[in-house]
Design a protein that fits this description.
The protein has four helices and 21 strands. It is mainly beta. The chain has two domains: about 120 residues, SH3 Domains (SH3 type barrels, Roll); about 120 residues, endopeptidase fold (from Nostoc punctiforme), CATH 3.90.1720. Strands 16-17-18-19-20-21 form a six-stranded antiparallel beta barrel. A five-stranded antiparallel β-sheet has the order 6-5-4-1-7. α2 crosses α3. The radius of gyration is 18 Å and the shape is globular.
Length: about 250
């Protein structure tokens, strides 16, 4: 079995083995994965962090042995906590890293990382502080960075930065944690999920104090949350229908 390590800042993971295929998520610097299928130009992989699968360009990662892969998994995550961090490559070139990249693997790649990093689990209320760092980040399907992010990528990264693990998609995240009966029972950092007319969960956001919610919709923004769903003051209407509130932490 072969394994891989992302050695670039932000790499698209695609639905099919084609540059024109849909980006289903992103692989950030330092993420490790298993190679499920290898072709001349593409490999189908399974990310270690959330078991997400897709196709990655073979030019955009480095292969690792099983021994090295297992050793990398033992390293404590060291996540970039600035909006942008920097590292110096073996060729003495600079590489910009968005918030959330894991530089624990930098020595393995002969890279030197600079900036602020986090490596511990924070109290639940700190999730909101992290979420506010993403304010106004543009919505991007499959995105996981302050330069483009989707709703579940946003919640996953906010939890990850604080030492907690969420699955990748909103429908997957909705299977985690314990359901709450009322908004009044919720705490800042809990997750609210929203469904479409068919009953499929299609959106997620992070609950704040005083019935506010921060979520990625067009951009990362703050709106009101009530028993119906998300109320957008700019549109003067509800934009999402509330399905369930979950407490994961």
């Amino acid at each position: 079995m072969k394994y891989g390590l992302c050695n670039l800042s932000i790499v698209p993971l695609r639905l099919e083995a084609s540059e024109a295929s849909e980006m289903v998520t992103q692989v950030l610097y330092g993420e490790t994965f298993k190679i499920l299928e290898e072709r001349k130009k593409w490999s189908r992989i399974r990310l270690h962090f959330d078991n997400y699968e897709g196709w990655i360009d073979n030019k955009q990662f480095v292969f690792t042995s099983e021994e090295d892969h297992q050793e990398l998994l033992t390293k404590t995550p060291k996540l970039v906590s600035d909006l942008v961090g920097m590292l110096t490559t073996e060729e003495n070139q600079l590489l910009a890293l968005p918030m959330g990249c894991n530089v624990a693997a930098a020595p393995y790649l002969n890279h030197i990382a600079e900036g602020a990093f986090v490596s511990k689990k924070f109290p639940k209320q700190h999730i909101i502080q992290t979420a506010l760092l993403y304010m106004n980040a543009p919505y991007l399907w499959g995105g996981k960075t302050p330069f483009g992010i989707d709703c579940s990528g946003f919640t996953q990264m906010c939890y990850k930065m604080n030492g907690y693990k969420l699955l990748r998609d909103a429908s997957q995240q909705a299977t985690q944690g314990e359901p709450l009966s009322f908004i009044e029972e919720s705490e800042p950092g809990d997750l609210a999920f929203f469904d479409n007319a068919e009953g499929n969960i299609i959106h997620v956001g992070i609950i704040m104090e005083d019935n506010y919610i921060i979520h990625a919709h067009g951009k990362v923004r703050i709106d009101r949350l009530d028993h119906t769903g998300i109320f957008n003051y700019e549109k003067r209407q509800h934009t999402h229908k509330l399905r369930v509130i979950k407490r994961v932490v």
